[in-house]
Amino acid sequence: MDTQPVSRRNFLKVSGLTGVMLSLGLYLPARAEEAEIINTAGTANLGTDMNAWIRIDALGKVTITDHRAEMGQGSYQAVPQIIAEELEVALDEVAVVFAQGNKKYGSQITGGSSTVRGSYKNLLKLSATAREMLIQAAANQWSVPAADCYAEAGHVIHKPSGKKANYGTLVADAAKLEPPKDVVLKKRADYKQIGKPLHRPDTPLKTNGTAGFGLDKTLPGMLYAAVERNPRMRGKVKSFDDTAARKVPGVKHVLKVKMLVYSTYREGVAIVADSTWAALQGKKALKVVWDDSGFEHLNTDEIYKRQQEALQTKEGLSLKKQGDVTDALAKGATKLDVVYETPYQSHSCMEPLNCTAHYQANKVEIWGPIQAPDWVQDSISKEMNVPREKVIVNMTFLGGGFGRKAFMDYPHEAVFISKAVGAPIQVVWTREDDTTQGPFRPGVSYRCEGALADGKISAFKLRMAGQNLGHWMGAPKDKPNDSTDEGFLKPYTDSIKNLSIADVPFETPMPVLWWRSVYASTNGFAYESFVDELAHEARKDPMTFRREHLPDERVQKQLDKLAEVSGWNSRKPGEGYGMAITECFSSTVGQVVKVSKNPDGGVKIDHVWAVMDCGWYVNPDTVKAQVEGSIVMALGAATQHEVTFKDGMAVDKNFYSYQMPRITDIPPIDVFIMDNDADAGGVGEPGLPAFAPALTNAIFDLTGQRIRKLPFSLATV
């Protein structure tokens, strides 16, 4: 075994090479799937436009860059675990760092459950390329064929002789090599790390307090800001009296501010102080007069009344149409025409919004819990008239995101204040700010019409009325919401000959935004509840009925597994079982919920079974945790909390009225993962949509009561 002893000579030799590094990344000229692997050491002087994911220094230390945000969903583990597998290093022996915002990484938006499914193939190839370059470097040093060498545990080993070289001793030579164009990837059966329940590297950091969240950032001379924002987004600041606020010890500045929310500037007044406490006290003492003229001040009841009137009178913009739905509805032997209603929701992340910004003459630097650093760069560059390359965005850990922290408003506000006062600023939102300001998940109403013939669906007509996020982002208003069918399995469309899915345009002044699983979170409730109602009208078992309308082998296997693990075919009288199956972000999740009557009244949830088909996946524990978390979030949205409006303002301000599920509310949850050779799908969001319809379908099975409006109380069913 040639292990190169650590002599004084070798120590001096290695310490003198610590600046030498093998650094590999992906050049992304257009789309990630077109990526080219590049050795930065060999091309740095040529000005290659790329960034590195893998760095190995002369001591053999491996540093892996996570180009996406970590908000609990597991990218801090998934990206390194993918790279460590083909690189042949142990996950617990590598350092992980967050990338700064930079388009050279491709899209950095952590949303749409896209981190693994959007990059895993390139990352596998990248790490295999690094491994092969190290093997080639060792083969060249030993004057042996590369085919006689292999990599293992951060070393290259020569099979015939047993010679062994640490990666650190090879990087100087490997950095001079041209990356091979083609590398052979492992078969899944040969994985040592991928597919295994490895411990998450961020867990110790989060339990011992060393993980850096947005609020942990401090800078010399930093001040703190709290902002009194107009409770109606489109309102303006008419005037303000800061006399009492300026008397609060520590308050330094009081100023009118703005932040861009889509194409509208939300106005407010900022209190800037030498501590967060002083800023908050100054905010309480501030008196503001708002100008809220020129737009409607709606109540919740009026919003849903308008939605449902529109569903009764308008056909909407067609997203998908096949066959002749009108004729099939007219001829159907059995017909249904029902309306479902889903509420507005707050994101209510455990960590409220915050951002630290420092506007300087030659650059802007930002630190915070940010889901989309590249989007923030674009936005700040445009709004502050600063070259994009001078906008530096540093990601921290996020205490939850759910889409809210992929928005650009709160970083803009922080930069605006920093420029105004000439100092680095940390802006902290209170829970009340976070809950009432939005943007919110849109509340949506659905009209579902269907007909049966010979026990199967002969017509299926779905119309959705809710605010279109695309319209807020500038999409043409004569085009339907392209997420109107999100959550609805494609195999349904293959089996239902007469189908219509349409978007009935609907607008309010309330700001809306993505929320975990986006429109699938509301669509799934309506569509899978309606399928269940049709199954009942057809007098068929709900599982059997879905099987008949989902002619896809992969889905059929998933339903087999769902029936097996839930004991669907051995249900007993007096037990309520409901099921639902939804698809979003290239993954399908089926769920069964079991309920029973609560001795104290209402019903209780006894058990939840979920079967996830996400194709290729990294860590089964992460998959299960994400599905469990999605179910808990879905439980709250279905049975406990909603955002309501009065006079155009959010009524619910904090957890005393916008109540979260407690640990005692959570039933036993079992999660199962389908194994197959399909491409990777999303994990962080697809587990949510199926829960609400599975729950309400179970309640119908137990009580005969159909629930078509969310949220509802389990205690009063």
Automatic annotation (TrEMBL):
Taking the record's annotation, the residue ranges forming a coiled coil are none
* The name this protein goes by in its record: Xanthine dehydrogenase family protein molybdopterin-binding subunit
Residues covered by the Aldehyde oxidase/xanthine dehydrogenase a/b hammerhead domain: 208-294
Read off the Gene3D superfamilies from this record.
Aldehyde oxidase/xanthine dehydrogenase, a/b hammerhead, Aldehyde oxidase/xanthine dehydrogenase, molybdopterin binding domain
Which InterPro entries does the UniProt entry name for this protein? Ald_Oxase/Xan_DH_a/b, AldOxase/xan_DH_MoCoBD1, AldOxase/xan_DH_MoCoBD2, AldOxase/xan_DH_Mopterin-bd_sf, N-heterocyclic_Hydroxylase, OxRdtase_Mopterin-bd_su_IorB, TAT_signal, TAT_signal_bac_arc
| PANTHER family, alphabetized | ALDEHYDE DEHYDROGENASE
The species this protein belongs to is: Spirosoma rhododendri
Please give the Gene Ontology molecular function terms for this protein: oxidoreductase activity
